[in-house]
Amino acid sequence: MTQHALITGGSSGIGLAYAHHLSLQGWRVSLAAQSTEKLEVARKWLGPNTATYAVNLASSSGVARLMESVPVPDVLIANAGITRAGSVGTLSQGESADLQYLLCGGVIDLVQWAGPVMKARGSGRIVIISSVAAETPMPNSSIYAAAKTGVSAFGRSIHRELKPHGVSVTVALPGYVRTEIHARAGLHHLARQVPRWMWLDPQTVVKETERASLAGKEMIIPGRVYRMTRPFLGSRLADVLWRQLTRRKR
Ligand SMILES: NC(=O)c1ccc[n+]([C@@H]2O[C@H](COP(=O)([O-])OP(=O)(O)OC[C@H]3O[C@@H](n4cnc5c(N)ncnc54)[C@H](OP(=O)(O)O)[C@@H]3O)[C@@H](O)[C@H]2O)c1
Fold first, then answer.
1. Three-state secondary structure string covering 19-64
2. Among 88, 27, 80, residue whose Cα is nearest residue 53
3. Which of 48, 95, 142, 239 has its CA 20 to 30 A from that of 121?
4. What is the secondary structure of 114-141 as a DSSP string?
5. Which class for 66: exposed (0-12), middle (13-18), buried (19 or more C-beta within 10 A)?
6. Hey, CA dihedral for 195, 196, 197, 203, is it positive or negative?
């Protein structure tokens, strides 16, 4: 039987690359994102085995609507996200709550919906696209880092809960990936300032994450450069370097 994947944020960047990867292998893919135009472009590109759902996943009603509309898939890729920079206190309470729900609370709701069904089936995979921000302090992106840390802790805990029942949860922690996310947040300077060797393409993230998920791994840091530097993440030196690279120069 054709396998079915639900991919949140499947209309661009990592999510679209994931959808393409699975489509090429004959999967049926359901994409959830906000923009109907982008979803339609993705659907046309991916072909007839694609369904789309236009929902705002920063709200619990949007997540509830998605859960009512789609059957629990064989694989859930919880990927939708944005980034928001801003020093402490600069996001309104509403903006902060939406960001936390999109990146963490909504993912928890989706996993609480799919997890028990997969457990009853005795099979299933869940992939959570978190961030290397879960491993290191991120001054001026503290809410993003907090939400990614929370969703990583949740995913790793549920992995250990569900693994004995044939269900894996794999948390991916990418570094810089060439997608729309930074320009969308007004962080255009990053494309100029962050050195080329620090950028991954979405296809690499997908290939390595999917391999880790198929192997039933709990966590994956895509890209050799990020795996090698992991022991230094969070160190004083890494903090100073990171601030220099990401400070807007012009
Ligand atoms: N790019 C990086 O450097 C990087 C690094 C680490 C982690 N990540 C994580 O990777 C994930 C994917 O990001 P990306 O880099 O691929 O970014 P992207 O190209 O901007 O794609 C983001 C996707 O999420 C969807 N989305 C955003 N807000 C949404 C909302 N409120 N409701 C429903 N869908 C929403 C977007 O759809 P619409 O356009 O319709 O809103 C789009 O499909 C995110 O969780 C991000 O935090 C990215």
1. HHHHHHCCCEEEEEECCHHHHHHHHHHHCCCEEEEECCCCCHHHHH
2. 80
3. 48
4. HHHHHHHHT-EEEEEE--GGGTS--TT-
5. buried
6. positive
In this structure, which amino acid lies at residue 110? L
pLDDT reading at 125 higher than 60: yes
**pLDDT tens digits for 6-59?**
999 999 999 999 999 999 999 999 999 999 999 999 999 999 999 999 999 999
Which pair of tokens denotes residue 130?
């978190």
If you measure from the C-alpha of residue 113 to the centroid of ligand 1, how many angstroms do you get, rounded to a whole number? 21
Q: Catalogue all structural domains in the chain, each as residue range(s) with its CATH number.
A: 4-246 (3.40.50.720)
**Two structure tokens written together for 183:** 């320009």
d(CA 60, CA 49): 27
Protein residue closest via CA to atom 17 of ligand 1: 181
Say what the pTM is.
Answer: 0.97
| Rounded average pLDDT over 79-85 | 96
H or E, element range at 107: helix 106-121
Q: Is the CB of 136 under 6 A from ligand 1?
A: no
The predicted pLDDT at position 202 comes to 98
The pLDDT assigned to 244 comes to 81
CA separation for the pair 65, 3 (Å, rounded): 22
Cα 47 to Cα 76, 150, 220: the distances in Å are 20, 35, 29
Q: Ligand 1 test: best mutation among 69, 82, 193, 246, most atoms within 8 Å of CB?
A: 82
